[in-house]
Recover the amino acids of this structure.
């Protein structure tokens, strides 16, 4: 599915308004593309049926049937492996707390399994290279995405002094961008509904020449520009809340890849951190069983 979405994103700047609406609907409703008639899809997308055909042709398909068949092939493939097993478990009874918890775990497992595709893995590799080559890495996220940005910042701060958190304490969160420029990077996380301040700050960073690595929920996200690296993750949940687990996984993987690129300096920094934490008695220590009473 990621490959189709990337294909749509590449053609997006050249699509007229009606085709853009149709393209956005297809990205947001991949299962319906495989299952519903073209006319019903057009009705739900708020466009004419002919727009669906024109969109498919603009994307390089002979017609809409070919685009729908490709979605159907992907949907059938989801019935295999861990992802398929998790999808079946979503039919469990959710009327009890245990059933609801089981459904949410199954949903998360399916989302994580679907992330292991070549397009996203390639994007992760490219993002890690971009961040590793940057002098400073500014980290940005608000509301539900703040924890993801903070987690990435914290993980990098353990092994490097290059990470800078754009927090909102005192209302000065975006001020460090005044000193940013080419050679720096912005790691930003934001999902629908997109926070305006984050979108504006990302555009400011882009204009200042920063490399942009965006963890977001759609290739059509306002965070993503033509030259940016987008890590597109699902956020649908079995509950009313956003599912942020896939976004956290992107932060975990990126932090590990950036730290790995810094080896062996990473090991030396971690050793120094361990010594400092021990000196400050930071963590709880279990009593020594061999100690005298």
């Amino acid at each position: 599915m990621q490959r189709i979405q990337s294909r749509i994103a590449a053609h997006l700047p050249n699509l007229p308004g009606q085709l853009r609406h149709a393209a956005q609907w297809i990205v947001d409703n991949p299962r319906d593309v495989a299952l519903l008639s073209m006319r019903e899809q057009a009705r739900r997308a708020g466009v004419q049926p002919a727009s669906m055909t024109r969109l498919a042709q603009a994307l390089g398909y002979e017609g809409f049937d070919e685009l729908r068949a490709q979605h159907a092939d992907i949907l059938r493939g989801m019935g295999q492996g861990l992802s398929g097993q998790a999808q079946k478990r979503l039919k469990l009874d959710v009327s009890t707390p245990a059933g609801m918890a089981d459904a949410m775990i199954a949903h998360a497992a399916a989302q994580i399994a679907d992330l292991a595709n070549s397009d996203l893995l390639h994007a992760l590799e490219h993002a890690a290279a971009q961040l590793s080559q940057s002098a400073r890495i500014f980290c940005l996220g608000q509301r539900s995405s703040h924890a993801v940005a903070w987690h990435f910042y914290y993980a990098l701060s353990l092994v490097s002094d290059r990470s800078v958190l754009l927090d909102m304490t005192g209302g000065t969160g975006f001020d460090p961008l005044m000193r940013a420029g080419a050679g720096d990077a912005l790691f930003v996380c934001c999902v629908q509904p997109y926070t305006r301040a984050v979108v504006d700050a990302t555009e400011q960073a882009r204009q200042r020449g920063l490399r942009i690595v965006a963890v977001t929920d759609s290739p059509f996200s306002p965070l993503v520009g033509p030259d940016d690296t987008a890590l597109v993750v699902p956020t649908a949940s079995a509950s009313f809340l956003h599912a942020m687990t896939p976004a956290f996984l992107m932060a975990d993987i990126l932090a590990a890849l950036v730290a790995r690129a810094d080896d062996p300096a990473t090991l030396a920094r971690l050793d120094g951190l361990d010594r400092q934490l021990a000196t400050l008695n930071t963590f709880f220590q279990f009593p020594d069983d061999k100690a005298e009473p």
